[in-house]
Model the fold of this input.
Amino acid sequence: MAQVEFRKLRRLELVDIIYRLQEDLEEQTKENEKLKRRLEDRELRIEKAGSIAQAAAELNGLMEAAQKTVDQYRVSVEGSLWRREMEARQQTAQAAIKAEETKRKAEKKAGEILQEAGDQAEENLQEARNQAKEILQEARNQAEEILWQARDPEKEIPRETGNRTEEVPSQEKEHMTEITGQWEGDSDEEK
Done:
């Protein structure tokens, strides 16, 4: 039926119809392109949404793995800190034992040094006493000799015979005792 109608139309009318059909076709093509783009855009969005969901799921997996890694690291660090603390305590205990031993040795050595110094001081004191007695005895002897010579230069001075001095008159004893504070003939027990 459409063919019969087209035969009756003139050429100009036919060209006009063809022209309008072409315009419709172009519009339809443009609209078709727009719809295709919108469809692709929606598909892309849907794809992205799927990718986002997948990415979120992967991200959750990564977060869980990261949390496990953090937990393992924390446990490792805590274990390391505990070991270091134990090592520090052990070193401190060993240092305290060593310090106590060193202190004990030092106290022992100090005691030995003090004992040795005391013994040496006692020896020096005894030696000094002996030297003082010798010097005192020598001074007494010289004082006695000087006194005897002062009294009578011609008289002979009594000499020690053993542990006893020859008998000296009591006047002279008193005089020598006044000078020296002690008569040479007196024993230590009599003083």
Summary: Residues 15 and 21 are 10 Å apart (CA to CA).
